[in-house]
Amino acid sequence: MKEAILQDPNNAMLHFNVGVINQEQGHIDEAKNYYKKAIELDPDYADAYINLGAAMLVKDKELVDEMNKSLSNFKKYDALKAKQLELYKEVLPYYEKAYALKKDDLDIVRTLMSMYENLEINDKFKEMKALWDASRE
Predict the structure, then answer these.
(1) Contact (CB, 8 A) for 88 and 133
(2) 0.70 exceeded by the pTM?
(3) pLDDT tier at 2 (50, 70, 90 boundaries)?
(4) SS3 label, residue 24
(5) Are 35 and 19 in contact (CB under 8 A)?
(6) Which of 48, 55, 69, 116 has CB 3.0 to 4.6 Å from 38, enough for a Cys bridge?
(7) Closest Cα partner for 58 from 93, 96, 91?
């Protein structure tokens, strides 16, 4: 794939695919760079926004694990929660852009709903929850 990129450096799909391979291999930073390049080449590449957001949220699992271990240490828990909220603020624009490009994607709706709820952005949370609930009827 990297050789294909050398042959066709402006092909957003090739950059995206190399990002996927890197993410699957646990090379998160490299994956993020390839997703960003795919977005740079094609600003309407919804899946690149989704995968970039997902790659960034890998850190969330680590934070949640640490938070769960720190339930009795309020100071540490609060510090970890603050880091989690900062991460959500950083990731949110990528999921919002993905949603703008793929309004019918319920995975994006669910992710946005969760982030809006945690960030206490209640009007947008209610909007996503209504979409989510409507999809379940």
Answers:
(1) no
(2) yes
(3) confident
(4) helix
(5) yes
(6) 48
(7) 91
Average pLDDT of every residue of the chain = 95
> For residue 78, what are its two tokens?
């609060």
Pick from 98, 99, 125: nearest CA to 114 = 125
| 98 contacts 115 by C-beta, under 8 angstroms | no
The three-point CA angle 47-58-15 to 5° equals 35
Shortest CA distance to 34 belongs to which of 54, 21, 94? 21
Contact predicate 17/7, CB 8 Å = no
Rounded to the nearest 10°, the torsion over CA 81, 84, 89, 92 is -130
Over residues 12-66, the pLDDT tens digits come to: 999 999 999 999 999 999 999 999 999 999 999 999 999 999 999 999 999 999 9
